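Worked problem 6 (solution included).
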Amino acid sequence: MRKIISSMFLLAAASVHAAPPAGQNALAGAQMKVDVGGHKLNLYCTGKGSPTALFEADLGRAGWDWSAVLPAVAQRARACVYDRGGLGASDPILRAATVANASKDLNFLIKNAGLEAPFVLVGAGYGAMVSQHLALRSRNAGATVAATVVGLVLVQPMHEDALPVDRGAQLDTALARQPAYWRARASELDSLDTSANQLRTARKPFGELPVIEVRQAEPAAITAAITQLLDRLKP
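Solution. The predicted structure is:
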């Protein structure tokens, strides 16, 4: 049976950014570029400790979305954010931006960057689908997956059986002029049905794997959920 710890934080939703927020440039530029098989993804890590918290942004968004959460988490554990293909400072996408392709890229990123297992995957919206897909692959004994996933934090998760009806891409004016960003976001939107089928096919009970769902995208609520899980997983 899936083990869910529900986080009902009645707080105002935090603003999210299609472009990096002012004064938070640590996540805005290229950091460590990691080859994932023909193209490179941008990775940024800070803090020390285990398990490693690995963040996955929402549809069409980059790692800088986590700038309000990362510092507090990094005080307790190693915390890493990255940009999917075509987003942030990562190279343009080479194939359809599906959940399966994103989880494969993430697996290569973990392996090639030498990130230290185990991992707590933190995904928002569409990113929660990517995180779950990798977690499900990691639980398949026959799969070649670098990630050892010991927990999931799902922030306002998109579900494969409840995709958004309105899929119009509302782009930041500056980013709308960037072809790589446009292609990546459009591909994620266009591939949603395929991504849903991929996750639906992979879906199995998470068993004893702890899963926390955060219903509001408020930094304080997200941080509290992550630290709750990290504390629970500490030896």
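Discussion: The helical segments are 70-74, 99-113, 126-138, 179-190, 192-202, 219-233.
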